[in-house]
Amino acid sequence: MARFILSRRVALRQYETVKRYVDVVAYSYKTNPAVWEVLRETDAMVGLSSMGSARRVRELSRAIYYLQGESEEEVRWLLDSGVGWLLVDNEPELRALLGELSRLDRSVNLLVRMKMREHTVYTGKHFVYGIDWRRVSDLIPELRENPHVESLGVHFHRKTQNVGEWSLVEDLSDALDDRAMGELDAVNIGGGIPVRYANSRPNVELVLAKVGELRDFLSARGVRLMAEPGRFIAAPAVALEATVLNVYSGTAVLDCSIFNAYMDTYLLNTRLPVLGERGDRSGHRYLLKGRSPDSLDIFRYSVYLDRELRPGDKVVFLNAGAYNFHTDFNDMPRLETEVVEDFPFPVPGWL
Q1: Domain presence at residue 347
Q2: pTM for this structure?
């Protein structure tokens, strides 16, 4: 049966890479919970966004929790559990939290999510979270005076697999005035650090250099830089190993589906690289099809491999660790994740 293979070496390598450019790394748990089982041995924090996740993660003192409609009882549970930071992305929720803190006479480390200035008219299909940047500059001095707020920071996040908007120093300077900037303890840039897919080859070195520039900018002002990479750590650390069930007319049918192995193929059109794939378009050409009857169930429309496929052969997808959640469509089983010290096969140099 198909399986995910999680390399401890690669997960830790990706974590250490980000850590060179920021002060605090908080792994985005929703990207792939299995990766946190490796990262918990480091000093990483963890980003959580559901009560279910909060109850599964034991180290809540290392958590940044995204509030999104939690009840008073749930907020009290988070506080009693010693959650490290709470993050709010709208003013009504902020006011409700401050009221609850006042009633309980409790304090928190607080991040305010900021909706940044947009450089394009059209923002796409995605909802843009956060309080308007103009309002945040007014809120920060107020929150700084609140006795129930200990450390104070702002959070902003452009998008997942961000390949273009990394003018971070300029963006932050445009959004916050000097007074607000002077009141901050931390700035959290969220995630979005991209990785390589078959249909996307971003300049990751440039992105990391821009992140480093922001850290230098903030360090000069006594502000810590936090980041919450998910995809950048999880994707390269996990491979998807599938078995060929049938081959006909240039189509190889696999023993898994995008619906139980990699929904990101459909949601974000991320096409996974394949071990043994030839970039010169020579070799044996295949359409790699999932085993469901759905016509959308295609991992790769056209991939050129260095070998001919036969039933029983293995096909290994690389960079397969980000958002590899399953659905119960067609009663498909959940694939297991096997944690190993390193991948049991040679990988290309770019990985």
Answers
A1: no
A2: 0.93
